[in-house]
């Protein structure tokens, strides 16, 4: 199994200390997280995209460029690129530029986003989100794979003989499809035969298992081999490891209560009674290292995922370092041995572009 550390740049007061990062301090915190992730042997670092407070993740390509300048090996992910509201020409240009500046380390996870407040900002309705995503993605793929593109659609002005610059550094910039709640995302991923990244955040395991099973069924429908499906998964947006599960629950409870107290949208409301119910039946990773390993293996049996992403946001900086290190040192080695992964197999794309692992099915 391979591992990504990621951040949505949620910037709220610490649930225990009450202390807050300034905007500048939070950006620096994320840069330090990414450098630490590379030092600890994580395979990737991801930056999400949100366009409203308390998130400050409105410009992932800018943040990832700063991370690229401070790292040399780690893959750079978008978790996710909200393509349903973005101009594909701008996306093609920005991320091809980042692809060069990073030496070919960028990978996109695309999606429609989890925050409906961004739709009015970019001039589309929530009802149009899936149609918009599908159209914009079809254009983005053409802009990266073709020159002299002529195109006409609903969500931007027509193009006539357009070749975006720069061309990508990698032969193919890998694309994953973010999946959270709808078969629209699994359908789009299956249609193109491309990897799926399950958010695995709010719901019970059965919800995400059903979406992944739909993805595999539709892969076969479109003529792709479901046995070769490449799947990533989140981990409930939370991890806390302690010497015992009881200690981890005690220390993490204030963070859990504070986070769930902020959730207001119906689709964000937790189906779990409390923290213990989530630990037992939900996605979050809270417990001893042994407990966390067992849970990841259990979820992997249901999902078949080769990649797992975790986040340490919301904790104090010292706790962020401690939790990332404990995961890397006490959990990751066992899972790397137990679960095979075909992605990110130590190819340096800056040296060997043709051999870059493209995680497609």
From TrEMBL:
Residues 8-304 form the Luciferase-like domain. Keywords: Monooxygenase, Oxidoreductase. GO terms for molecular function: monooxygenase activity; oxidoreductase activity, acting on paired donors, with incorporation or reduction of molecular oxygen. Coiled coil: none annotated. One of its GO terms (cellular component) is cytosol. InterPro entries: Bact_Lucif_Oxidored (IPR050766), Luciferase-like_dom (IPR011251), Luciferase-like_sf (IPR036661). The keyword Oxidoreductase applies. It holds the Pfam family Bac_luciferase. PANTHER family: BLR5498 PROTEIN, LUCIFERASE-LIKE MONOOXYGENASE. This is LLM class flavin-dependent oxidoreductase. It comes from Paenibacillus agri.
């Amino acid at each position: 199994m391979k591992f990504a550390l990621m951040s949505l740049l949620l910037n709220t007061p610490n649930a225990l200390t009450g202390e807050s990062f300034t905007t500048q301090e939070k950006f620096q915190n994320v840069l330090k997280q990414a450098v630490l992730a590379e030092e600890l042997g994580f395979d990737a670092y991801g930056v999400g995209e949100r366009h409203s407070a308390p998130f400050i993740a409105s410009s992932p390509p800018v943040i990832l460029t700063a991370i690229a300048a401070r790292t040399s090996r780690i893959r750079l992910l978008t978790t996710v690129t909200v393509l349903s509201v973005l101009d594909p020409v701008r996306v093609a240009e920005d991320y091809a530029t980042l692809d060069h500046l990073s030496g070919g380390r960028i990978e996109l996870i695309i999606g429609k986003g989890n925050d409906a407040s961004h739709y009015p900002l970019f001039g589309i309705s929530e009802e149009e989100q899936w149609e918009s995503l599908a159209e914009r993605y079809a254009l983005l793929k053409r802009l990266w794979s073709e020159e002299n593109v002529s195109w006409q659609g609903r969500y931007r002005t027509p193009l006539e003989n357009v070749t975006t610059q720069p061309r990508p550094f990698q032969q193919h910039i890998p694309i994953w499809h973010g999946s959270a709640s709808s078969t629209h995302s699994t359908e789009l991923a299956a249609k193109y035969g491309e990897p799926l990244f399950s958010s695995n955040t709010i719901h019970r395991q059965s919800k995400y298992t059903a979406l992944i099973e739909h993805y595999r069924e539709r892969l076969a429908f479109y003529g792709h081999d479901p046995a070769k499906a490449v799947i990533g998964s989140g981990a409930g947006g939370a991890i806390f490891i302690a010497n015992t599960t009881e200690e981890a629950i005690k220390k993490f409870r204030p963070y859990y209560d504070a986070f769930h107290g902020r959730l207001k949208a119906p689709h964000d409301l937790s189906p779990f009674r409390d923290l213990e119910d989530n630990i037992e039946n939900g996605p979050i990773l809270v417990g001893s290292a042994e407990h966390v390993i067992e849970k990841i293996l259990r979820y992997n049996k249901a999902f078949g995922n080769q990649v797992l992403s975790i986040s340490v946001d919301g904790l104090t900086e010292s706790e962020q370092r401690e939790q990332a290190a404990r995961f890397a040192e006490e959990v990751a080695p066992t899972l790397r041995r137990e679960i095979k992964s075909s992605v990110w197999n130590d190819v340096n794309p800056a040296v060997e572009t043709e051999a870059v692992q493209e995680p497609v099915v």
